[in-house]
Design a protein that fits this description.
- It comes from Halosimplex litoreum.
- One of its GO terms (biological process) is carbohydrate metabolic process.
- GO terms for molecular function: hydrolase activity, acting on carbon-nitrogen (but not peptide) bonds.
- There is one protein chain.
- With 343 residues, this protein is of the alpha/beta class.
- The chain folds into 2 domains: 124 residues, Galactose-binding lectin (Jelly Rolls), CATH 2.60.120; 209 residues, TIM Barrel.
- Helices cover 23% and strands 33% of the residues.
- The protein is globular, with a radius of gyration of 20 Å.
- The mean pLDDT is 94.
- Bound molecules: zinc ion (ZN).
- The site of zinc ion has 5 residues, from loops.
């Protein structure tokens, strides 16, 4: 064992104590392992862990089958918050793991970068997966290419998406205007909130955060986007405790960065998404959704001949998604359909 593990009776979600993992600046990792005398079946289950950390970190929950095949589950834990439940996505599959015969589960924290980290873990739980693989496509920042590039590609496959816009830049150069937004909405897209001005929310006080969040929601409702107004994406994926409280007051679902393939979300205001994936990353994230009945949210920014990924890479990814959907391996749904599968 590197690092250290100790019980902490001061900080708990359930039961008398949490586990405090500390990976020191020179320790590579801290770990808790649990071996089962008889293998357990978690094939229909996702992983949720309640955790807090003194700085932002992506811990692992590693699951090993009886033959040593494994899945690494991961979630980004924002530093400095109180305990939050995090729904863990799938970052890596080693071999062909048999989730009906799991022998060991480990929680591992890697410090890295010469900086110590403290993580408190509590209440590791198995959560039902959805009935089938589920993929959601989203766009941030209200770029005109959502309309000019992505919309025709998605329409060809019969998919809809969400566009998260900042009311402070509607109709600006290179951004979507009201007429494009209305057309996207009429075609089934969710026109949703990315706050008024795309500020770093956790750098703002509560009143300023509320102005950014409530102001964007009001704008959406006032302009006929009531349905999309229920959904929020945190600018830069950044949030703090105040942000989470406001998100809960004004929105049904809120999205942040992270991993693909998680089970039914238990934390409706930290729903993970895969950022601007190239074809290889997106294909893997889509195939994980199909293989594990997981939820995968992909999000993109501007799509041009030079963007990363490019518009043609985006089109290739959507072709793969369409192939998997027409095979019956997964379904492609708008953000609002996630509401019904939140636990
Ligand atoms: Zn953004």
């Amino acid at each position: 064992m590197d690092g250290s593990v100790a019980g902490d009776a001061e900080r708990t979600v359930s039961g008398p104590q949490s586990a405090h993992l500390r990976a020191g600046a020179t320790d590579s990792r801290a770990r808790i392992a649990r071996r089962f005398e008889r293998p357990i079946d978690i094939s229909d289950m996702g992983i949720r862990l309640s955790a807090r950390a003194n700085r932002s970190i992506n811990p692992y929950v590693q699951v090993f089958d009886v033959d040593g095949n494994k899945i690494n589950f991961r979630a980004p834990i924002r530093g400095g918050l109180s305990f939050q439940p995090f729904d863990f996505g799938i970052s890596k599959v080693g071999g062909s793991p048999d989730l009906s015969a799991v022998e060991e589960i480990r929680i591992t924290v890697w410090a890295g970068e010469g900086q110590a980290v403290d993580v408190w873990c509590d209440d590791l739980a198995l959560v039902e997966r959805s009935e089938t693989g589920t993929v959601v496509v989203q766009f941030d920042d209200g770029n005109l290419t959502d309309y000019s590039e992505a919309f025709p590609v998605l329409e060809e496959h019969g998919f809809t998406a969400s566009t998260f816009v900042c009311p402070g830049s509607i109709g600006a150069d290179g951004k979507l205007g009201l007429s494009e937004l209305s057309e996207l909405r009429d075609a089934g897209w969710d026109v949703a909130s990315h706050t008024v001005d795309h500020e770093h929310l956790s750098a703002l006080d509560e009143a300023a955060q509320e102005a950014q969040i409530a102001g964007a929601k009001d704008w959406l409702v006032d302009h006929g986007f009531e349905r999309g107004a229920e959904y929020l994406v945190y600018p830069f994926g950044e949030y703090d405790q105040t942000t989470l409280n406001l998100a809960d007051r004004y929105h049904e679902l809120s999205f942040a960065g992270g991993y693909p393939g998680y089970g039914r979300p238990t934390n409706r205001h930290v729903i993970q998404r895969v950022s601007s994936p190239d074809v290889e990353t997106a294909t893997r994230a889509i195939d994980i959704a199909a293989a594990y009945d997981g939820i995968t949210v992909l999000f993109y920014h501007q799509l041009t001949a030079n963007s990363e990924p490019t518009r043609s890479a985006f089109a290739s990814t959507m072709s793969h998604l369409a192939d998997r959907e027409s095979n019956g391996d997964l379904r492609v749904v708008p953000a609002r359909d996630l509401e019904s599968i939140v636990v």
